[in-house]
């Protein structure tokens, strides 16, 4: 309470970040107690198409999905682990939040030996253990996403792929919101939420990964933008959704990395 920070955007690589970066004394302050609304019966259902598009993209890039090892970083209650397992992967997971970890074991019946209660920073796996590593809605929460990518690359087999889903720093709806703030003479921006839920510390552009790839010897194998929700009235979506699709200004950036 009473602490503020500045939200900045790198003109070279489109990364949006907080400067200074606020870090809680204990990660549980931010992620330990999820709201009860998380635990609706609906939340535990896995839709038939859950993570299928991503598994298809992996299959297109790699050639197959059976007899391969996958790692889900930020496994939550384990939905993605189950989807991967159903597609033939042998799957491990990492989850830093105790309530999610407990639900994964108790409700979703994830094998305890497959899921570690750990942050990526503290996790240990052997070099080149996995063919497919996925960070779904994770990197924007980490204090040092670049280090997390390097760690995942160390765990990745030479021909494997890292899949990342992050909020795009080029989202049209944020730009409109920021423009409305500007019209009111305010210096606010809607991007990131370092001090409140959902605790997004970063938004990323394609260039953020291109610049990072140069430093850390990986390549971008594939990328796409997803429009997701626009938060606009339905009647406007008819115009905005196709426009955002055509201009790569959707909410989410999906990116696939491979080692050089
Ligand atoms: Zn930059």
From TrEMBL:
One GO biological process term: methylation
Record's keyword terms, sorted: Methyltransferase, Transferase
Entry superkingdom: Bacteria
Pfam families in the cross-refs: Methyltransf_23
Matches recorded under InterPro entries: SAM-dependent_MTases_sf
Gene3D superfamilies: Vaccinia Virus protein VP39
Gene Ontology MF annotations: methyltransferase activity
Entry-linked SUPFAM superfamilies: S-adenosyl-L-methionine-dependent methyltransferases
Entry protein name: Class I SAM-dependent methyltransferase
The species this protein was found in: Rhodocytophaga rosea
């Amino acid at each position: 309470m009473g602490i503020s920070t500045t939200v900045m955007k790198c003109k070279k690589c489109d990364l949006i970040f907080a400067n200074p970066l606020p870090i809680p004394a204990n990660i549980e302050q931010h992620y330990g107690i999820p709201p009860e609304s998380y635990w609706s019966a609906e939340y535990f259902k896995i839709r038939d198409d859950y993570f299928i598009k991503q598994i298809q993209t992996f299959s297109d890039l790699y050639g197959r999905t059976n007899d391969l090892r996958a790692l889900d970083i930020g496994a939550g209650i384990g939905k993605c682990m189950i989807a991967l397992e159903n597609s033939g992967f042998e799957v491990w997971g990492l989850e830093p939040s105790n309530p999610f970890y407990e639900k994964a074991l108790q409700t979703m019946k994830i094998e305890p030996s497959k899921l570690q209660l750990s942050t990526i920073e503290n996790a240990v796996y052997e070099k080149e253990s996995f063919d497919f590593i996925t960070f779904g809605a994770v990197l924007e929460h980490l204090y040092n996403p670049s280090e997390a990518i390097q760690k995942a690359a160390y765990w990745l087999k030479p021909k494997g792929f890292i899949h990342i889903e992050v909020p795009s720093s080029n989202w049209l709806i944020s730009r409109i919101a920021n423009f409305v703030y500007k019209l009111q003479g305010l210096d606010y921006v809607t991007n990131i939420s370092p001090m409140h839920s959902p605790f997004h510390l970063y938004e990323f552009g394609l260039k953020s990964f291109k610049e990072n790839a140069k430093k850390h010897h990986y390549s971008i194998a594939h990328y796409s933008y997803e429009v997701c929700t626009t938060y606009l009235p339905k009647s406007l979506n008819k115009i905005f959704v196709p426009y955002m699709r055509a201009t790569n200004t959707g909410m989410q950036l999906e990116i696939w990395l491979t080692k050089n």
